[in-house]
Specification:
Layout (H helix, E strand, L loop, with lengths): L15 H14 L5 H16 L23 H17 L1 H6 L4 H17 L3 H8 L1 H16 L6 H11 L2 H10 L14
Length: 189
């Protein structure tokens, strides 16, 4: 049997600590992302940090059941997808305060990336496909950084129910010995 393929990446400068945190979170999650998605995630984090805008506000993402992904420029759709990803991955507690389910922002971000993918950029199709895994990775990164669960059990249940998030499932398993079950209706709290 041939040996497992090893990945060697050397990162220097401002991105090195972010790549180290991504790698640590991948080890905790026990899954590797494709390198192009790791690179995009780190670049996105650096871009938001460079603007001093890592914490997106609720006003930066359309809210409400009738909101749709606007058919806009590449930049607008990319920013919408990026903000939804950062928001659901690093600022989950703000969603509960805003009384909007995380699944809403996941769907909005996935649709924005998918729309860009349909315009001919396969990276954004992959971002849409891997959105939940990227969000899970960001939530794990946050927990590694501050040591606290990124989701309360009720939010974790709703996120797991709506998106299939493995991270949310792990939060539920740590919170209770019970096994959650999915109902036919979306969870609302």
């Amino acid at each position: 049997m041939p040996p497992a393929k090893m990945r060697y990446d050397i990162h220097t400068g401002d991105s090195a600590p972010w790549y180290a945190l991504v790698t640590a979170a991948e080890a905790v999650d026990r899954r590797l992302l494709p390198q192009e998605l790791e690179r995009y995630l780190v670049t996105t984090l650096l871009r938001f940090l460079g603007r001093g805008d890592l914490a997106p506000t609720l006003r930066s993402v359309p809210a409400g059941p009738r909101s749709r992904v606007p058919v806009k420029s590449h930049r607008t759709l990319r920013n919408l997808g990026d903000r939804c990803l950062i928001y659901t991955g690093l600022f989950a507690e703000q969603m509960a305060q805003a009384q909007m389910p995380a699944g809403y922002y996941v769907a909005m971000g996935r649709r924005a990336y998918a729309r860009l993918g349909h315009r001919g950029d396969p990276l954004f199709t992959r971002l849409s496909d891997y959105f939940v895994q990227l969000m899970d990775l960001l939530q794990t990164m946050r927990e590694l950084d501050d040591g606290h669960a990124s989701l309360d059990p009720l939010s974790a249940y709703q996120l797991w129910h709506d998106t299939g998030s493995r991270h949310a499932w792990r939060v539920l398993c740590r919170a209770s010995a019970g096994t959650p079950c999915a109902s036919g209706q979306p969870a609302v709290h």
